[in-house]
Amino acid sequence: MKHNVRRLTADGCRLAKGKNHIYFFTDLDITYYIERIKPSGISASAYLAETIAKFLADNYLHITGADYLKNKNQEIDIEVQVEKTVDGCRIPYGYILRDAAKKSSEELQAEIAGFREKEEDGTHPLGFFPGFLRRSALRIIMSSFGLRQKYLGTISLTSVGSVSRHCGYVQPLTLADFCLAAGSREERGGRWFQRFTFVFNHDLIDGGDCGRFIDEYQEILLGKK
């Protein structure tokens, strides 16, 4: 395969099928972003990255109940997918926004843009290895919180709605304990709504906490927090 970076995506999806994830599909009001933030040139991806990172920085331990994270590096590193054009093909590359909670939307957007401009050839060193070795490497990474955060980030963010007006809800396969997927948006009665999918690791997070988390995040998107 010429662009073997896609093999790593397939490996991650294959392993993600074994995760005990729960999915919440919901529409959230994003009128505040459309009217107040977007006119300044801030992309939806950068805005979502900033808001979710700062919210999680204060609530991550609470919503997961993960005692093993205490006294460890609790920086919120967000894995995002950045499309690049290689040999005429659009290929998504994983990129990690380090310590995103301490950065503004402008800084996050500039960081993503800088990575997008970096030239790639569509390959990854691991992509040349047999599938069982690639997946073994991923399992080793997943077994360690430190390695997982280093190579995969703390959480995952995907914004398909930024490239499609009709994608509806997104149902991602992810290795992350928490993933936010933004789908398409539409105007209803003078307000703007976007379809979101919240993905939680049910081994760490109870359903009730997931629901409260979504309610609180809506308040942030409304500009109330």
Automatic annotation (TrEMBL):
Gene3D superfamilies: Chloramphenicol acetyltransferase-like domain. It comes from the Bacteria. InterPro entries: CAT-like_dom_sf. This is 2-oxoacid dehydrogenase acyltransferase catalytic domain-containing protein. It comes from Breznakiella homolactica.
